[in-house]
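Subject line: Sequence and fold of a protein, written as structure tokens
Area: Proteins and the way their chains fold up in space.
Start of record: The labelled sequence and token lines come straight after this line.
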Amino acid sequence: MEKASFLEIRPIAGALGAEIFGLDLSQPLSDADFAQVQQALHDHQVIFFRDQALTPEQHKAFSQRFGGLLEVPFIRALDGHPEILPVMRGKEQKTKRNFGGLWHTDMSYTAEPPLGSALYARVIPPYGGDTMWASMYAAYDGLSDKLKEVLQSLRAIHSPARSYGANGAVVNNGDPAHKMDVRTDERASAEISHPVVRVHPATGRKALYVNRTYTVRFEGMTEEESAPLLDYLFEQAARPEYTCRFRWQAGSLALWDNRCTQHLAMNDYDDFDRELHRTTIAGDAPIAA
């Protein structure tokens, strides 16, 4: 059996997040090294690698070790690479809307939301443009036993409409002033129901599974009836002690578990360009607690 590489793993916050040193992701991972990376992801929920030099093919090859890759709806993919989503904003852009600028879990509006995502930094501002992640294990664990009991019987409706509907927050319908081409279509009106508390299939831990971007109401309730408790849960999910913050450098790669985290892109770099490439790893339907 091939010997595993020695990896240095440095946590960056108490709740989640760790940097990993000792791997060149441009090279195929041995089974032993992949097992270490996968365990680190389960332990820390989001992991980071610095100083990587990856082609799009190498980025995809690393991501595919965790599962098949998804094409992301509504957004133009990288030319020649339909599995890579370019996350971009330019300093010339007049409308300073920020893609990913509210707390969210990627594509929770689908029947089988992604297992995770791998985001690779190509053009980074000299300051600003950090990304934050929050642990939904910690958010769930921090609730009272009585509220946990209530939530375990609830399901919530997720929809892309607020982001990708006709008047969606990030839709620009090919406006040349925007570097990202985000278009609406008939899929934006779809709705899907997921459990409010999901069980992670690998760790067995319970995680809160609602997010401010895509969760619109509880199943069987109106938006008005749902809003007070949902707002409380959204605030709970973003408590500072449940988060970590990562400062990007060109060549950095973040890999996170969408089944137990949320993330937020900071919008504080108006005078600079920023470009990162994201792969999205296929997942399964959430399992109710």
